[in-house]
Amino acid sequence: MHILVTGGAGFIGGHLAERFARDGHSVVVLDNFDPFYDLDLKEHNVEVGREAAREGDGSYELVDGDVRDAELVTDLVGDADYVYHQAAQAGVRPSVENPRKYDAVNVDGTLNILDACRDTGIERFVMASSSSVYGKPRYLPYDEQHPTTPVSPYGASKLAAERYACSYGEVYDFPVVALRYFTVYGPRMRPNMAISNFVSRCVNDEPPVIYGDGTQTRDFTYIDDVVEANVALLESDAADGQAVNIGSTDNIDIKTLATEIRDQLAPELDLVYEERHDADSEHTHADTARAGELLGYEASHTIREGVAAFIEWYEANREWYEPLVMES
Ligand SMILES: NC(=O)c1ccc[n+]([C@@H]2O[C@H](COP(=O)([O-])OP(=O)(O)OC[C@H]3O[C@@H](n4cnc5c(N)ncnc54)[C@H](O)[C@@H]3O)[C@@H](O)[C@H]2O)c1
């Protein structure tokens, strides 16, 4: 299969490109190397993808370009059977400072790809959506029928992109699936996230920083589970036209998470508290029944198992990964 992975130099896209290349597919990555965090981490993701292609008999091509470039996007989508759209301006808090960039990349960029899918034809368009589309919880866990009232410009941009995708799929009759990821973590994860932050600070004898009082809860999803859900969509049409939650169904409050990581890595450190941002979700918790029913999805890691696996990976990869996460 010819698979276009937008944002394929990033954390999640990097894992998808690696898996597809290892499975023998012909992978094209489109990424503009946005300097949201250390670019050496993205270069590393590209190297991992190239290596997987060599080992797995697939192919890997990197296109350094922007989803806002409609002409380029049209060319690339024209050669693809499947599009896995992971490119986005991520980050909830910075979206409050600069909402227009989120709109340009996450909404207009997605529309460029959808226009190309409409014009050239495609087997399936799969996009990374987010639990941020739900906003304030009316009930938990969130199922896909939960009202969508995002509280951040980031969440609003992901919801707009997802709704455009589903409406294009409906009107122009091509298969679309939006996977709503609940905070994803694991090897090569983004530096500016709670788990990478807590671990890197603790191993460097710096106190973990909690925003707010730490009572906010999160459903953290291990990267392998996200990859499996995406891989299932190469074969399955069961979720076409739908938004589907991808989470762990487990959840933990941030203070407990920080305490457990601290206790394991640096028990002498105190926890440090800083002000919570209004755009941060108070609680996230996924109901993944739809993913289970349609895609056979089942989370493989509880949060404690996944964090233990991440710490083990961190320690084995500390030499190259740590400077990149500490500097970002
Ligand atoms: N990581 C999470 O917890 C999480 C949770 C929910 C949803 N998501 C979504 O999953 C996707 C991947 O997230 P991630 O954590 O891997 O983030 P990431 O920042 O590591 O990856 C995104 C990639 O997109 C690229 N990109 C940004 N703007 C671009 C543009 N204009 N043109 C081309 N490429 C561009 C970046 O350079 C980056 O490599 C995003 O769509 C994000 O909204 C992530």
What's this, in brief?
The protein is 47% helix and 16% strand. By secondary structure, it is of the alpha/beta class.
Descriptive notes:
The chain is an alpha/beta fold and 328 residues long. It has one domain (2-184, 221-249, 285-302): NAD(P)-binding Rossmann-like Domain (Rossmann fold), CATH 3.40.50. 47% of the residues lie in helices and 16% in strands. It is built from 11 helices and 13 strands. It has helices at 11-22, 39-56, 70-78, 93-97, 99-120, 153-172, 194-203, 223-235, 254-265, 289-295, 303-327, and strands at residues 2-6, 26-31, 59-64, 82-85, 124-130, 176-181, 184-185, 209-211, 217-218, 221-222, 242-246, 252-253, 272-274. It has a 7-stranded parallel β-sheet with strand order 3-2-1-4-5-6-11, sandwiched between helices. Strands 7-10 form a two-stranded parallel sheet. The longest helix is centred in the last third of the chain and has 25 residues, at 303-327. The two termini are 35 Å apart. Pfam families: Epimerase. Keywords: Lyase. It is an enzyme of class 4 (lyase).
Give, in spatial order, the strands making up the sheet with the most strands.
3-2-1-4-5-6-11
Instruction: Assess the beta-strand content as a share of residues.
Output: 15-25%
Rg (C-alpha, Å): 19 Å
Which consecutive residue ranges, at least 5 long each, have pLDDT under 50? none
Q: What CATH first level would be assigned?
A: Alpha Beta
Which structural category do the helix and sheet elements fall into? Answer: alpha/beta
Report the CATH topology name: Rossmann fold
Number of strands: 13
One letter per element, helices H and strands E, the order comes to EHEHEHEHHEHEEHEEEHEEHEHH
What number of domains?
A: 1
- Biggest sheet layout: 7 strands, parallel
Total helical segments: 11
**Small molecules bound:** nicotinamide-adenine-dinucleotide
